[in-house]
């Protein structure tokens, strides 16, 4: 289905998301740090990035801004344990905001919507 890059500094979260999203038919890569994401994003060319806000080496909201500066069409889903960041003006740059849960229904729905929106925009010629 889609190429997804999951960025989270917690290994068990990366493993769980990889397992669950792979079962849905997605190709999933992971990165443990913001610096790793920035290095891998060009090579992997993901269709969606699932980004944690609190990373050990990077503020996820600042990382989101960097992604937007270089890859403005790449759908980014903020996925965090803290719903308070939703009110942060920097989080508006994300396509979706999901609060972490062991039930990945909301995350899976956000991924599906992001993929549908980007496909629709490409088909209409808005994105190339």
What does this structure look like?
The protein is α/β, with parallel strands linked by helices and 128 residues long. The chain has one domain: Response regulator (Rossmann fold, 3-Layer(aba) Sandwich). It has four helices and five strands; from the N terminus they run βαβαβαββα. It has helices at 11-23, 34-44, 60-70, 105-123; strands at 3-7, 27-31, 48-51, 76-80, 96-99. It has a five-stranded parallel sheet with strand order 2-1-3-4-5, with helices on both faces. The longest helix is centred in the last third of the chain and has 19 residues, at 105-123. It is globular, with a radius of gyration of 13 Å. The protein starts with a strand and ends in a 5-residue tail after the last helix. The mean pLDDT is 91.
Short précis:
By secondary structure, this protein is an alpha/beta fold. The protein is 42% helix and 18% strand.
Descriptive labels:
Rossmann fold, 5-stranded parallel sheet, 42% helix, 128 residues, alpha/beta, 5 strands, single chain
């Amino acid at each position: 289905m889609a190429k997804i890059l999951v960025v989270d500094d917690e290994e068990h979260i990366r493993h769980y998301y990889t397992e669950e999203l792979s079962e849905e038919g997605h190709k999933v890569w992971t990165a443990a740090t913001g610096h790793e994401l920035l290095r891998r994003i060009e090579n992997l060319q993901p269709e969606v990035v699932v980004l944690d806000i609190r990373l050990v080496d990077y503020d996820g909201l600042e990382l989101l801004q960097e992604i937007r500066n270089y890859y403005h069409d790449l759908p980014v889903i903020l996925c965090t344990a803290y719903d308070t960041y939703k009110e942060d003006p920097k989080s508006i740059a994300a396509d979706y905001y999901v609060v972490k849960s062991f039930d990945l229904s909301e995350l899976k729905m956000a991924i599906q919507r992001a993929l549908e929106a980007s496909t629709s925009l490409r088909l209409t010629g808005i994105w190339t």
